[in-house]
Design a protein that fits this description.
The protein is an alpha+beta fold. The chain folds into 4 domains: 3-109, DNA Primase, Chain A (Alpha-Beta Complex), CATH 3.90.580.10; 118-255, DNA primase DNAg catalytic core, N-terminal domain, CATH 3.90.980; 256-379, Dna Topoisomerase Vi A Subunit, Chain: A, domain 2, CATH 3.40.1360.10; 383-466, no CATH class. It has a 5-stranded antiparallel beta sheet with strand order 1-2-3-4-5.
Length: 624
C-alpha cells in the first residue's frame, strides 16, 4: 500500500502533499470523473444490467469478476474483494499514492489544483518548471558545447551510446561558477526558484549566488510521474582527488533522496511486468543495464537502500535484487540494508559482482547474459549474512568476537517480516537451519539461541506496532456481527447516525479496520459532514479499507427488509443490549467481590435481573 498508511488517523482528507488539500477540491475531482470511463481506459468493459463488468486486472481472471457501479461510482472485484472509487482504482492500477492520483484525475477532468489552495502549490510548480528548464540546458550543453567534449568521450568510452544518453536526458554542467545563472538571466528564470530547487547556492563571503553543479555529468532525477525534481552530478576522471564522485540536489519540497530512486519513472512498467526490481548503485550502471536490454533496473541516490525505497518498490515488484560491487564497500553497503529490507514483506536477494567489476562493465563488456547469471545466483539475505559472518570470523576469534558474530546473525533473523512472502512452515524451517548452524559452529545451546532470538523479535514487534496493509485487508463476512452492524448503519444512514455513534467507542469494536472506519466517520461528523460512502472513501488513506466499504454498501442495498430508520432502530436496540450486558457483568463482579448490606444486595440483584432481561431483549416486565 501507499505511504499514507503510516498515519491512519482520520484527518481533513488524504495527504495531498501540499496541493489541493481542501475537501471541496477532492470532491470536485471525484464528481468530475466517471469511473466507467476511467476503468474503460484500462480494461474492456461490457454492460450487465445497471452495471458494467470486466476482467479484474489484479488476479488471473477468466470470467469477468470486476463490477463497476455507475450510480454509486464504485468498483469491486467479487474474487479478490478489492474495491473503492475512482481514486482507489487509479491508485491500484498505477501504484500511486493519493496525491499522485488526485493530480492525474484533476488533469484528466481539467481542474486546476494550483490556485487558491495554499502557497505550497505554486512553489512546487515553480520547482518543477525550474528543474525542467535546467535539464534542457544541461542536455543542450552535453550535445552541442565543446565544453562537454570530455564528458561525451568519457561516457562513450564506457560503452554508452548516444541513443542511450539522449533517451535518458544525460547532460553536462560546465566547470564555471555561474554558467547556469547566466543562462537563467538570459531566459528570465528567477534566481530564487533556482535556489529553492537546489541548483544554485548563496555565496557566504559576499552577495550573490553560484552554480551548485560545476564540471559534472548531469543525470536528471524524476518522480514516478516523469517530472524532473532533482539532479545527480558525476565528476569527470580528471577532477581533483578531493572532489566527491557524486553530488545530488539537496532536499526540496519536491525531492527526498530517501524516497526516490533514479530511473523508476521509466522502469515502472518493466518492473511491473517482470515482478522484480534490480537495484544498482550508480547512474551509469542503470543506463548500461538498460542499453543491454535489462529494463527493470533502478539506482539509489548516493544512500543505502532504505525502508521507504523498499516500500516504494513493493508497489511494483515481488522481488528486490540488490546488486553490490564485490569489494569491501559492497560488503559495508550490504550490512547497511539487510536488517531494514528484511522487515518488509517482499522477497529480497543479494547479488555480488566479482571483485573490481561494476554493473556497467559487466553489462557492456561481459554482456547481459553474464549479468543475468549473477542475478539468478543472488542469495537469500540470511544465507548471505551467515556466509559473510563465517568468512570474516578469524579461526582464533575470542569468545567476545564470536558472540558478537552470533548476535549479528540473530538480529538479522529477528528482522524477517512476519508477513514475509515465504509460507510460515518454510520460514520456520529456515530459522531452524540457521539456529542449527550457529549451534554447531559456535558450540552454543540451541535453546539459548532460540531464547535470544525470541527476545530480539519481541523487542522489534514492540517498536513497530503500526498496522500494515495486510492487517487492514478483511472481508465483510469475517467481521464480528457487532462491527458489521455498526459499519452498516453508518453507510445506510449517514445523515442520521451521528447520535448513535456518540455512544459507541472504538474499544467496543474488534477489528482494526472497523475501528479506523469509525474514527473516520466521527471525524467527518465533527466537520459537519455526513459519513457517506463517497465521503469515507475520500477520508480514508488505505485502499484496503475501500474494498470493505464497497462490499458492505452493496450488501446493504441487497437487504430490502430494513430501511434507514429500521437499521438505526436495530442498531440502537443492539447497543442497549450490549450496554445492559456490560452492566450485568459489572453487577455480578460487585456482588462477588464486595461486602454489601442486605438492602443494597437486594437492590443490586434487582438491577442485575433488569440488566439481563434488557440484554436478552425482554424489556416488558411481564415477559418470560
Amino acid at each position: 500500500m501507499h505511504p499514507a498508511i503510516n498515519n491512519l488517523s482520520p484527518h481533513t482528507g488524504h495527504d495531498s502533499g501540499g496541493i489541493a488539500h481542501g475537501d471541496d477540491v477532492k470532491e470536485r475531482v471525484r464528481e468530475a470523473i466517471d469511473i466507467v470511463d476511467l476503468a474503460g481506459s484500462y480494461i474492456s468493459l461490457r454492460r450487465s444490467g445497471k452495471n458494467f463488468v470486466g476482467l479484474c486486472p489484479w488476479h488471473e481472471d477468466s470470467r469477468p469478476s470486476l463490477q463497476i457501479n455507475p450510480e454509486r461510482q464504485t468498483f469491486r472485484c467479487w474474487v479478490c474483494n478489492v474495491g473503492g472509487d475512482a481514486f482507489s482504482f487509479l491508485m491500484r492500477m498505477d501504484r500511486l499514492d493519493f496525491r499522485e492520483a488526485l493530480e492525474q484525475l484533476a488533469d484528466r477532468a481539467g481542474i486546476e489544483l494550483s490556485r487558491g489552495h495554499g502557497p505550497g502549490s505554486d512553489v512546487k510548480r515553480s520547482l518543477y518548471e525550474a528543474c525542467a528548464w535546467a535539464s534542457d540546458r544541461f542536455v543542450d550543453c552535453f550535445k552541442n558545447s565543446p565544453l562537454a567534449k570530455e564528458a561525451r568521450d568519457y561516457l562513450r568510452g564506457r560503452g554508452l551510446t548516444d541513443d542511450t544518453l539522449q533517451a535518458n536526458s544525460v547532460g553536462f554542467a560546465p566547470n564555471e561558477w555561474d554558467w547556469l545563472l547566466g543562462q537563467a538571466h538570459a531566459s528570465g528564470i528567477s534566481t530564487s526558484h533556482l535556489e529553492q530547487a537546489g541548483l544554485v547556492v548563496t555565496r557566504q563571503d559576499r552577495s550573490g549566488h553560484y552554480d551548485r553543479f560545476r564540471g559534472r555529468i548531469m543525470f536528471p532525477i524524476c518522480d514516478p510521474q516523469g517530472r524532473c525534481v532533482a539532479f545527480g552530478g558525476r565528476v569527470l576522471p580528471n577532477a581533483p582527488p578531493d572532489s566527491a564522485k557524486y553530488i545530488n540536489s539537496p532536499e526540496t519540497p519536491v525531492f527526498s533522496k530517501q524516497s526516490m530512486l533514479y530511473g523508476l519513472d521509466s522502469s515502472r512498467e518493466a518492473i511491473s511486468h517482470s515482478k522484480r526490481a534490480l537495484v544498482v548503485e550508480g547512474y551509469t550502471d542503470c543506463l548500461a543495464a538498460r542499453q543491454s536490454g535489462i529494463h527493470d533496473v533502478v539506482a539509489v541516490l548516493g544512500t543505502a537502500l532504505g525502508q521507504r525505497h523498499a516500500r516504494l518498490l513493493r508497489r511494483y515488484a515481488d522481488r528486490i535484487v540488490v546488486v553490490l560491487d564485490g569489494d569491501d564497500a559492497g560488503r559495508r553497503r550490504a550490512d547497511e540494508v539487510l536488517e531494514v529490507l528484511l522487515a518488509e514483506p517482499v522477497d529480497i536477494r543479494i547479488a555480488r559482482l566479482p571483485a573490481g567489476v561494476d554493473p556497467c562493465d559487466q553489462c557492456l563488456t561481459a554482456g547481459p547474459e553474464a549479468f543475468e547469471t549473477i542475478i539468478d545466483e543472488a542469495v537469500d539475505p540470511l544465507d548471505y549474512r551467515m556466509r559473510e559472518t563465517f568468512e570474516r570470523l578469524p579461526q582464533d576469534a575470542s569468545d567476545e568476537v564470536a558472540l558478537k558474530a552470533v548476535e549479528s546473525v540473530l538480529k538479522i533473523l529477528s528482522a524477517v517480516s512476519p508477513r514475509s512472502p515465504l509460507p510460515p512452515s518454510q520460514r520456520q524451517l529456515r530459522q531452524d537451519q540457521i539456529l542449527g548452524k550457529l549451534a554447531r559452529r559456535f558450540g552454543l545451546s540451541r535453546d539459548a539461541l532460540q531464547a535470544r532470538l525470541q527476545e530480539l523479535s519481541r523487542s522489534r514487534r514492540t517498536n513497530d506496532a503500526s498496522p500494515t496493509p495486510e492487517d487492514l485487508s478483511i472481508d465483510a463476512a469475517d467481521l464480528v456481527p457487532w462491527d458489521r452492524e455498526v459499519l452498516s448503519a453508518i453507510l445506510a444512514a449517514p445523515e442520521e447516525v451521528s447520535g448513535l455513534l456518540d455512544r459507541i467507542s472504538e474499544d467496543e469494536l474488534t477489528a482494526e479496520p472497523a475501528k479506523i472506519i469509525l474514527r473516520a466517520a466521527k471525524s467527518l461528523i465533527a466537520a459537519e459532514k455526513p459519513p457517506s460512502l463517497a465521503a469515507l472513501l475520500l477520508e480514508l488513506p488505505a485502499t484496503e479499507l475501500h474494498g470493505l466499504l464497497v462490499q458492505l454498501d452493496e450488501s446493504i442495498r441487497e437487504q430490502t427488509h430494513l430501511d434507514q430508520i429500521g437499521r438505526l432502530h436495530h442498531l440502537s436496540e443492539a447497543l442497549e443490549r450490549r450496554q445492559a450486558d456490560k452492566t450485568a457483568w459489572q453487577t455480578v463482579r460487585t456482588l462477588k467481590t464486595s461486602p454489601l448490606q442486605p438492602d443494597d444486595e437486594a437492590a443490586m440483584i434487582e438491577q442485575l435481573v433488569l440488566a439481563r432481561r434488557t440484554a436478552q431483549g425482554m424489556t416488558d416486565p411481564k415477559e418470560g
